[in-house]
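>> Question from a student workshop board

For tomorrow's exercise we were told to take the sequence and the ligand below, predict the bound structure, and bring the output to class. My setup keeps failing. Could a helper post the expected result so I can at least see what it should look like? The ligand is heme C.
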Amino acid sequence: MIKNSFFSLVCFFSFCAIISLNSCVSNNKEVLFGCDSTQVKYTATVLPILSNNCYQCHSASNSPTLGGGVNLEGYNNVRNWVNPNNANGGILLVDITTGRMPKNLPKLSDCDIAKVSNWIKNGALNN
Ligand code: HEC
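>> Workshop helper replied:
Here is what the output should look like for this input. Compare the format with yours to find the bug.
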């Protein structure tokens, strides 16, 4: 009888441990499985995010017809739409944080938004 209730207790605690571990994993998926938003650079980090999600409308050639005339190809053009001196980081960051951009498409991942945000906070350098 004692052995039996000890066993139930162990089962109960293992169950709790599994449940809490599981919620921890799903809340921090990106942290645990590799969202490193700390080492962000324009060329290595921001450019691929923009070319994958924005160039279909905001490349030099597509922007006149599909991107409302907003060209986001090349550092200088991107720099016009971000502002490290403004608390909100500029229009581009507001647009991706609110999900207004990419227009009529799913919002960027939290990880990608954090990367762009950190790049701007670090001065939006051409690095
Ligand atoms: C399907 C086409 C499309 C995609 C994809 C798209 N945009 Fe836009 N974007 C537009 C259009 C069209 C405008 C012109 C304003 C409007 O219609 O809202 C615009 C305007 C903008 C502006 C100018 C400021 C403003 O809000 O009007 C910025 C900055 C911008 N987009 C950033 C982005 C970024 C960053 C991405 C990628 C994460 C992106 N856009 C993806 C179509 C798009």
